[in-house]
Amino acid sequence: VNKLVINYIVEEMRPVCTVEKPAFVKSKLEATKSTVIDYYIKEELAKTKYVCTTADIWSAQSKSYLGVTVHFIDDKSFERKSFVLCYKPFKFAHSFDKIAGVVNEVYTFYDLKIDKISGIVTDNARNFSKAFNVFSMSLSDTNVNNDNDNFAEFPELENCNEVNVETFPYFDEEATYVLLPEQFRCCSHTLNLIITDDAQKAKEEQKYKKNQ
Predict the structure, then answer these.
(1) How many Cα atoms sit within 13 Å of 133 on the Cβ side?
(2) Beta partners for 86?
(3) pLDDT at position 122, please?
(4) β-strand 63-73 against 183-185: which pairing, if any?
(5) CB 1 within 8 A of CB 7
(6) What is the rounded CA–CA span in Å between residue 73 and residue 187?
(7) Bridge partners (DSSP) listed for residue 65
(8) Is 107 left (phi over 0), alpha (psi -120 to 50) or beta?
């Protein structure tokens, strides 16, 4: 019944708030606005071969939030489409393992397999960099990146497919491993760091001052 309701709302282009109308609520159907949106996004993602995602964590009023978006080109119309997959409080420390776990949960919820995600764009934060150094693989890779330095805190691991998720209490108990796509660093954030951070450091360098 829920699927029929969702199909009706999507195909007839009815507003998603339809499921919040008093008459609809009285019908005691279980569909909600979030259910409708999630179903539509999953249907759209299932139609495309490749997607790119972004992820960011920020703080406001002593609280942290995680945002994940997805972007792709429609196979038929060649139209660029974008969706917000996640916007929710991030209740953990901003450590690399917890970032990896939560991002993986978002991918799992939307049935996004690793071979479908061409990459993920993040800022240059060290926790993000380490998360993807440890857990990522690109579409062109046949084996997971196995840099021994990346596994300093996981000496028992030989590759990311063998990550013991029991060490991560926030994972689904049925999960067996975490694997993330290749990371691409945000160009805008990189340029911002050059202007606000690297440029200031350059001014303090004696060689730079001498060359000026």
Answers:
(1) 16
(2) 68
(3) 93
(4) unpaired
(5) no
(6) 21
(7) 58, 89
(8) alpha
Q: Which two tokens stand for residue 116?
A: 């479908």
Q: How far apart are CA 146 and CA 8, in angstroms?
A: 48
pTM, entire model:
0.66
Note the pLDDT of residue 60: 85
Mean residue pLDDT of the chain comes to: 77
Tokens of residue 145, six digits: 């990146």
Cα distance from N-terminal residue to C-terminal residue, the chain: 72
Which residue, among 17, 40, 110, has the nearest Cα to 68 in the 3D structure?
110
- In this predicted model, which residue has the larger pLDDT, 55 or 202? 55
Three-state secondary structure of 103-155: HHHHHHHCCCCHHHEEEEEECCCHHHHHHHHHHECCCCCCCCCCCHHHHCCCC
Q: Are 106 and 178 in contact, with CB atoms under 8 Å apart?
A: no
Which pLDDT score is estimated for 171?
42
Residue 49 burial (10 A CB sphere; 0-12, 13-18, 19+): exposed
Tell me the C-alpha distance between 85 and 120, whole Å.
13
CA nearest neighbour of 34 among 69, 84, 102: 84
What token pair was written down for 175? Answer: 């999960």
Query: Can you tell me the distance from the alpha carbon of 171 to that of 167, in angstroms, rounded to the nearest whole number?
Result: 9
